[in-house]
Each structure stands twice: as structure tokens, then as C-alpha cells.
Design goal:
With 216 residues, this protein is an alpha/beta fold. It has seven helices and eleven strands. The strands form two sheets. Strands 3-2-1-4-5-6-10-8-11 form a nine-stranded mixed β-sheet, with helices on both faces. Strands 7-9 form a two-stranded parallel ribbon. α1 packs across α6 (178-189). It binds NADP nicotinamide-adenine-dinucleotide phosphate (NAP).
Length: 216
């Protein structure tokens, strides 16, 4: 499989790139900082340097050309900067959808968020803005006419992966390691019958292979 990852040098994106590379897939993706190329080289991934806020749809399409699927795992990081959230988590997804169409890439997997995450907390306005932008991006993808998967992980940690998760259209928001999210993404990509579905994933007791197989 040929996979293009938007946000390939990020904490989740780089884990997905490594797993897919180990599986024998061709992996490329958009990264933002020149010094990140050595980490991409180390996992055999091809990096295309660019910034989502300035790259055109056509440039992104050229970068992704030949891919079977785009994985979007970039994010502005809930930072206190609504316009950056708009540009990366909102317009960035829009550009990826447009690029997929221009490059005749039929499928996009979007890493999103649990809509009800941390409703019990008094979060800053920028977090509420982030949640709203993420939800609008989900809606744009659902209506894009591409084949799509929206994967909503709960709070991400850097704990070692367990190889097990709880995965379904509705889960309780807890936490999950990026390792397990990356394995879930790689497994979903290799399960072509799973598409046009919103999935929530959090820590759990079902092996990732079984959890994904149960969706088929
Ligand atoms: N954090 C959580 O608890 C949580 C929970 C649920 C879902 N999510 C979502 O999960 C995804 C992955 O999260 P993560 O924490 O693993 O991500 P991360 O490490 O913050 O990676 C995000 C990547 O996006 C890149 N990026 C940001 N702005 C960019 C731009 N303008 N142009 C190009 N690339 C840009 C970053 O580049 P740099 O490396 O240069 O910074 C980074 O590599 C995100 O979409 C996030 O919203 C996060």
C-alpha cells in the first residue's frame, strides 16, 4: 500500500509511518521542520517539506500523488491560537480532501477527537474552539464523497502500547497510548472493508487485530 501522511513527523504520525514501513508499505508524508528529515529517513519514509498553512491544494496533491490513502494526523495542538487551529485542524483537512480529489486518491483517514472529551472540566475557550473545528472537519470529510474513516482517540499518552484497545462507534473518553493509536490506524488501513465509519478508540482489553476484525 502507498500511504501519504499529513503530519508524518508528529508523535502519532511518525509511529504510523514506522509501523507501515515495517509492514512493507510505501510511506511518504508532509512534515514541517527540516531537522525532522533524519527521523523520517530512519524509518524509510519519504518526507515532503511543507507547511499546511501555506501549501496549495495542488502542491499537496502533487506531494501525495500515487498514494492509495491519505492519513491526516497533523494538528495545531490545542494551542491558545484559534487562527492556527483554523488553519491546521480546519483548513488543513479541507486541503487534504481537495488534494485527494485532485490526485485521484479515493480514501482519507482522519484523526479526530471525542466530541464529549472533558465536558466535565472547565476548559479554556481555545479548547472549545479546537473541538468545534475538529467536528466541522469531520463533517466535511463525511460529505466529501471520498471513502473515509474518522478515528477519534481519547487523550493521547506516550506510554508504551499494550496492543489492546476498545474500539467502536461510541466509547467512554479515557486515555490511550499513541503506540496503540498508531497500531489501530495501521490495522484499519490494512482492512479495506472498513470505511465510511466513525470510530472511537481508547484503552481496552481487546487485541487491536480482533477489535478491527470485529468491524468487518
Ligand atoms: N493530544 C491529544 O490528547 C489528542 C487527543 C485526540 C486527538 N488528537 C489529535 O491527534 C492528532 C495527533 O496528535 P499528536 O499529539 O500525536 O500530534 P503532534 O505530535 O502534535 O503532531 C502533529 C503534527 O502536525 C504538524 N503540524 C502542525 N502544524 C502544521 C503545519 N502548519 N504544517 C505542517 N504540519 C503541521 C506538527 O508539526 P511539528 O512537528 O513541526 O510541530 C506535528 O508534526 C492530532 O490531529 C490531534 O488533534 C490529540
Amino acid at each position: 500500500m502507498n500511504v501519504f501522511i499529513v503530519g508524518i513527523a508528529g508523535a502519532t504520525g511518525s509511529r504510523v509511518a514506522k509501523l507501515l514501513g515495517e509492514h512493507g508499505d510505501y510511506v511518504s508524508g508532509l512534515y514541517r521542520r527540516p531537522e525532522q528529515i533524519s527521523a523520517l529517513d530512519a524509518v524509510g519514509a519519504i518526507g515532503i517539506l511543507g507547511d499546511l498553512t501555506t501549501i496549495s491544494e495542488q502542491e499537496l496533491a502533487s506531494a501525495a500523488n500515487g498514494a492509495d490513502v491519505i492519513v491526516f494526523t497533523a494538528g495545531a495542538g490545542e494551542q491558545d491560537n484559534d487562527s492556527m487551529t483554523d488553519c491546521v485542524d480546519g483548513d488543513g483537512v479541507r486541503k487534504a480532501i481537495a488534494a485527494a480529489r485532485l490526485a485521484s486518491i479515493s480514501k482519507l483517514l482522519l484523526v479526530s477527537v471525542f466530541p464529549e472529551a472533558w465536558r466535565e472540566r472547565n476548559m479554556p475557550k481555545s479548547f472549545e474552539h479546537y473541538m468545534a473545528v475538529k467536528k466541522r472537519a469531520d463533517v466535511e470529510l463525511v460529505h466529501s464523497k471520498l471513502a473515509w474513516i474518522i478515528l477519534r482517540p481519547s487523550a493521547l499518552t506516550n506510554e508504551p502500547g499494550t496492543g489492546s484497545v476498545s474500539l467502536s462507534p461510541a466509547e467512554i473518553h479515557t486515555a490511550i497510548s499513541r503506540d496503540d493509536v498508531a497500531t489501530t490506524i495501521a490495522t484499519l488501513l490494512h482492512s479495506p472493508r472498513v470505511q465510511n465509519t466513525i470510530l472511537e478508540v481508547t484503552a481496552g482489553d481487546t487485541t487491536i487485530a480482533s477489535a478491527v476484525a470485529a468491524l468487518n
